[in-house]
From TrEMBL:
Involved in nucleolar processing of pre-18S ribosomal RNA. Residues 150-159, 184-196 have a biased composition (Acidic residues). PANTHER family: U3 SMALL NUCLEOLAR RNA-ASSOCIATED PROTEIN 11, U3 SMALL NUCLEOLAR RNA-ASSOCIATED PROTEIN 11-RELATED. Residues 1-24, 144-234, 259-283 are annotated as: Disordered. This is U3 small nucleolar RNA-associated protein 11. Residues 15-24, 209-227 have a biased composition (Basic and acidic residues). The lineage of its organism: Eukaryota, Fungi, Dikarya, Ascomycota, Pezizomycotina. It holds the Pfam family Utp11.
Length: 283
C-alpha cells in the first residue's frame, strides 16, 4: 500500500506568501528565519544576564597587587606603561644642551635675514632700488663683447669706436631684413619721405615730445606700482621672519629654564601646581 501511495501524483506543497496589503514589509518570515532570529535573541539575552550578574556581584573593595603598580589620571583613565626606557639625567642634560645650541644657531641666521630685509625695505622706500628688468633702463643696458689682440701695444692702441663703430647702422632683432632687389625702391621712397618730413618737422617734433612724455609717465607709473608690490612682499616676509625670531627666543628661554631647574639652581612649579624654591644657606 505504501508503494502505491508513493506512486500516486500528489499536490505540491506551497508556503503561504506575503499578502498584497503587506507587500511593503518585504518577504514573509518563514520558520527557518524565525529559528535563526530566536536563537540570536536567546544568545544575547544570556550574555546580558551574565554581565548583569557580574556587575551585581562585584566587590568594590576587591584588592589586586596590580593596583600598586598602576595609576590613573585626573579623568579616571588608567595610565599604562608604553615600554619606553627612561633616560638618565646626564643624557637629558646633554640633549637639552644640544637643543639650545641648535636653536641659538638658527636664531643667528634668522637675525641676519631680518637685518637684510630691514635694509632692503628702507632702500625700497627711499626709491634707491632700480628695477632694470621692467624696461626703465633699456638704454643703459649694454652687452659685453671680448676682442683678442696680439700684444700689449695693440691693446693700448685699440680704438673701440673704430672697431665697433657707433652702433647706429647695426640692425636690431626687431628690424626686418630688406631684400636686395628692394634696396633701390626703398632708397627712392626714403628720399621722398625725407622731403615730406622736412615740411611738417615742427609738428612732428612737438608730437614726438608729447609721446615721449606720455611714455615716460607710463613707465614711471609702472615702476611705482612694481615698487609698491615689492615693498608689500618684503614687509610681509619681514613680519614672518620677526615672528619666527620671537618663537625661537621663547624656545631658547624655555630651554634655559628647564636646564636651570634640572641643575637645581632656580625654583618653579612642580607638576601638581605647587610652587617651590631652592633651599638657601642660612646667614
Amino acid at each position: 500500500m505504501s508503494s502505491m501511495r508513493n506512486a500516486v501524483q500528489r499536490r505540491n506543497h506551497k508556503e503561504r506568501a506575503q499578502p498584497e496589503e503587506r507587500q511593503k514589509w518585504g518577504l514573509l518570515e518563514k520558520r527557518k528565519d524565525y529559528k535563526l532570529r530566536a536563537a540570536d535573541h536567546r544568545q544575547k539575552k544570556a550574555k546580558l544576564k551574565l554581565l548583569s550578574s557580574k556587575a551585581r556581584d562585584r566587590n568594590p573593595d576587591e584588592f589586586s597587587f596590580k593596583m600598586l603598580s598602576s595609576s590613573v589620571d585626573k579623568r579616571g583613565l588608567k595610565v599604562a606603561d608604553r615600554g619606553n626606557e627612561a633616560l638618565s639625567m646626564d643624557v637629558v642634560k646633554l640633549l637639552k644642551t644640544q637643543d639650545a645650541a641648535y636653536i641659538r644657531t638658527i636664531l643667528q641666521q634668522v637675525r641676519r635675514e631680518r637685518a637684510k630685509l630691514e635694509e632692503r625695505l628702507v632702500l625700497e622706500e627711499q626709491g634707491e632700488v632700480q628695477l632694470v628688468r621692467d624696461g626703465l633702463e633699456e638704454e643703459g643696458r649694454m652687452g659685453k663683447h671680448r676682442v683678442f689682440v696680439e700684444d700689449e701695444e695693440e691693446q693700448e692702441g685699440f680704438d673701440a669706436d673704430a672697431w665697433f663703430g657707433e652702433g647706429k647702422a647695426m640692425p636690431s632683432a626687431s628690424t626686418p631684413e630688406v631684400p636686395r632687389e628692394w634696396e633701390s625702391e626703398s632708397e627712392e621712397e626714403d628720399e621722398d619721405d625725407e622731403e615730406a618730413e622736412q615740411r611738417p618737422q615742427k609738428k612732428t617734433l612737438s608730437a614726438r615730445k608729447q609721446k615721449e612724455a606720455e611714455d615716460k609717465a607710463k613707465a614711471l607709473k609702472k615702476f611705482e606700482k612694481t615698487r609698491q608690490r615689492a615693498q608689500s612682499r618684503t614687509a610681509y616676509r619681514l613680519a614672518m621672519v620677526k615672528k619666527k625670531e620671537r618663537e625661537l627666543v621663547a624656545a631658547e628661554e624655555e630651554l634655559e629654564k628647564q636646564r636651570a631647574k634640572m641643575s637645581s639652581s632656580v625654583g618653579g612649579i612642580n607638576k601638581n601646581g605647587v610652587k617651590f624654591k631652592i633651599r638657601e644657606r642660612k646667614r
